[in-house]
Amino acid sequence: SSGINAEYGGVRCDSGIVEGSSISIHYDPMICKLVTFAPTRREAIRKMEAALDDYVIDGITHNTPLLREILGNEAFLSGNVNTKFLEEEYPGGFSGAPLTISQRAELYPALVALHHSKANRAAGPGSYKYVVTGEGEERGEVMVTVSKDGTCAVSLDGQTVTVTPQGGIHEPLQKFTLDGGREVTLQQLEFNGVTHSIRYRCCRKDFTIVTPLQQRFMDAMPEKPVVDTSNLLLSPMPGSVSMISVEEGDEVLEGTEVAVIVAMKMNNSLKAPKSG
């Protein structure tokens, strides 16, 4: 399907992919072409950034994080690009980047406002403290002051911004207005009451948000050692081994049945997670 997104204006999405479609690796695995147009290059780029932030793609790996990063690249912004652009600008590839100071200053307030609305829905107006910890990111202590109309005044690093949520808290796309002007878009992926998995600027980021008291308890907990289970075949449930389907020294392919266990009066096939 193809068409122009009327909500934005100047945004066109050409795609032949629908739910249930198979995207093969044997040909061009294109999901769609996203095109923006405007009187100037910079305006078109800003529209593209907004369109990518709102583009929800689930279930497959995609390249929107790289595309979103390229839109902020100085060489790309200036139009000084060639066929070796990726090789020259990202010689080691791209696997995400830490937040800049300005990105942290807009993401943390929006994320904490979302967390408060989800984790403390019954709480009334007042002030609340949270500790935000993200993988590879600096820990932040945040104060949220909630007014009767749902607007939050969020204080972080000595700066206070007013955060106004747009829409319901369960929508996959969450939009917030900061200080009545800047708009921040987050995509919700997972939330378990403490940990948020989101997409910000198309990149997946995981954060833990707790109260200061909860953080003190978490800091006192010993870290669970990481055990390498890549060469182990783990049973998903307790049971009795009824059959071993291979012998020592056999070469097995990924998906080959290795053993059968009996659990809950049923035979359960255990298959090799990788070849070897």
Commentary on this structure:
Helices cover 21% and strands 32% of the residues. By secondary structure, the chain is an alpha+beta fold. Mean pLDDT is 88; it is low at 1-6.
Task: Quickly list its features.
276 residues; alpha+beta; 8-stranded antiparallel β-barrel; 3-stranded antiparallel β-sheet; 21% helix; disordered N terminus
What's this entry about, in short?
This protein is of the alpha+beta class and 276 residues long. It has helices at residues 41-53, 64-70, 74-78, 85-89, 101-119, 212-220, and strands spanning 2-4, 11-14, 33-36, 126-134, 140-146, 152-156, 159-166, 173-178, 182-191, 195-200, 203-210, 240-244, 257-263, 266-271. The chain has six helices and 14 strands.
Q: What assembly state would you assign to the polypeptide chains in this entry?
A: single chain
User: What percent strand?
Assistant: 25-35%
Give the terminus-to-terminus CA distance. Answer: 43 Å
Q: Main β-sheet, in a few words?
A: 8 strands, antiparallel, barrel
Secondary structure topology:
Elements: E1 2-4, E2 11-14, E3 33-36, H1 41-53, H2 64-70, H3 74-78, H4 85-89, H5 101-119, E4 126-134, E5 140-146, E6 152-156, E7 159-166, E8 173-178, E9 182-191, E10 195-200, E11 203-210, H6 212-220, E12 240-244, E13 257-263, E14 266-271
Antiparallel strand pairs: 1-2, 2-3, 4-5, 4-11, 5-6, 6-7, 7-8, 8-9, 9-10, 10-11, 12-13, 13-14
